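Re: the pair you flagged

First of the two:
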Amino acid sequence: MDSALIAVAGTLLGVVATHWFQGRAAQRTASLARTEQLRQERIATYSAFAGAVVDYRQSQNDRWFRAHLEPGTEEAEQSRYASYRQRSAARQALFRVQLICDDAETRRLAQDAFEKTHCMHEATDDEDRVRRSYEARDALALFIEAAAPSLR
């Protein structure tokens, strides 16, 4: 009779221990899955932002050239409207970065990349436009450099 009680107690202890270990393993698996999902969302968001800013920068360069080489033409107006569309896409991508990024410095660098690109069309001459274009490119590179560690 004593051996039966010991067997039942041992079985119950084994069941409780197994349940506890399986619960911890399930929590760990769920945590890893959440971490990987967030990583994938950040990769998609950061690369979409970088692509939108590159397109916006190209659009701003085109807008500047058309405004200075062909002022008042239909092409200059179309280029201006195209830059507005690119600005909207870049701003939307920036909002996604701001929502998903939990590092204040990385968010600031994303904002800076957007703003430097936004101001390109205000260049007074070609030298100023080139300088602003490089500043926008470099600001985007700083954002990418800051964002990359959170993706590894």
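Second of the two:
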Amino acid sequence: MISWSIWRIPALVACFLLMAAACGSDDNGQAYEADRVGATASASIVNPDGDVVGSAEFEQGPTGVLITMSMSGLTPGAHGIHLHEVGACTPDFKAAGGHLTATDEAQHGLKNPERTVDNHDNGDLPNLYAAADGIAQAEFFTSLVTISGGSMPALLDADGSTLVIHENPDDHLTQPIGGAGGRVGCGIIR
């Protein structure tokens, strides 16, 4: 019986060390779980008629989320693209709600001089550009959200979130959506 107990001590120490290694902190001292790095989500993007016109993949990195997407059927040129607060698209994409934000005082616009580290719009992304044939392929990186939790709002929180594409470019200044106009694409992030 004693030899069996001694044998278990190294196994218990090894388990404790593995559990400790699974935890860490980000540059701001916020705790995160190492197993969240590599977490993924995806979205099928539909147009206002409900036709699937694109897809987006989301992957959690150690300091933010990488978004890889492709879409067709857009008018050529720039389109505002944002992360919205609710995981719903119908009716008319209004169910997606406003931008995903951590505060009611959030300031939209990547170039907005009123924007600070404490009042940024977590749903802001650079514009998506469609070629002459209406096809867009892009990668975006944002440190303002997480996939499933942590120090920033989570895409997969209780009410979910969406990726919304607008008809016009985002000027990154005008409140509340940068003059991006109507919603022409919506994907529920799952």
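The chain has two domains: 2-32, 37-188.

-B.
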